[in-house]
Amino acid sequence: MTPIFLRVAKKVYYSTGSPSVRQFYVDAVARATRSVRLKTDVNGIRYDLDLGELIDLNIFLRSYEPDVKGFLEEICKPGMVVADIGANIGAHALPCAQHVGPTGRVLAFEPTEYAFAKLMANLRLNSLNHVEPHQLAFSDQPGEAVVDFRASWRTAGGRKDGPCKVKFVRMDDWMAEAGWPVIDVMKIDVDGFEYRVMNGGRETLARSRPFILTEACSPHFERPGENLFEIFDALGYVYFDPKSKTRYPTWKDIQNRLPSGDEEMTVSVNVVAIPAEKLAQSAYAGR
Fold first, then answer.
1. Gap between the terminal Cα atoms of the chain
2. Residue 27: pLDDT above 80?
């Protein structure tokens, strides 16, 4: 695979306006690049990418989670402290470091050995000393366990990662021990475990009142006693679709966008949660 082919591939991708044609093209590029590994700059950040991985390929094409990317660009300001919970290989943590600058801080939490090794490799390629990588998982009960959290999505199907030993800590305990009094922004994507993460971080949420972007899926609303959004409701948060900036009147309106009984989490949506008193200082004011 030549550098010229890759440059042409990106240009063709960007010039394709139709979503269906673009997806067809992405699939074709994915088949052609499954054995390609390269170091490249994307929006001023250097990455070590395996184009056989879906996340890496989409970073290369500048198409990885544009709604999350847009939210973080709008919300993150110089000097802020950002917690990226479920940082994977740093696709959002590293751009956040650009947004908050050297006076800010990005706390990147990734428990899996596979993704954390890739996160560290990408950090070594960049002069971003204000990113703190931490190999751990937040939960509402501390401990250690061998788990099979997903960290790899191959473009050909299957995965590269597997079971690994994970350290679980409560967010409130970790923040107190680490000495972080305030978190300004949180991005959380932990494949359905979001309730447990936030349940162990209620004091942090109440004290910091951060802007939050979270993944939402069917189990959040259907597992008894594990509704993530009831925690947010109790703290006076309001909800938005990050793509359209449309406000959800209640969390039930988020639930209505998801299929019922989807324990495998085949469908999910990203949701912005903002403390009501901070709404006026955000791009979502007046929505």
1. 47
2. no
* Pairwise CA distance, residues 72 & 49, whole Å: 22
Phi, psi of 18 (to 5 degrees): -75, 125
Single out the residue of 178, 201, 173 nearest to residue 188, CA to CA. 201
**Burial class of residue 226, CB neighbours in 10 A (0-12, 13-18, 19+):** middle
Polymer length of the chain? 287
Read off the pLDDT band of 196 (50, 70, 90): very high
Per-residue buried b or exposed e for 22-48, using 16+ beta carbons within 10 Å of the residue's own CB: beebbeebbeebbebeeebebeebebe
Tell me how many degrees the CA angle 272-153-170 measures, rounded to the nearest 5.
Answer: 50
Residue 285, CB-side half-sphere exposure with 13 Å CA sphere: 9
With contact defined as beta carbons under 8 Å apart, do 138 and 169 qualify? yes
How many angstroms separate the CA atoms of 85 and 111, rounded?
A: 9
What is the percentage of the chain residues whose pLDDT exceeds 90? Answer: 72
Question: In Å, how far are 158, 162, 261, 269 from 266, measured between CA atoms?
Answer: 15, 20, 10, 10
Q: The pTM is what? A: 0.91
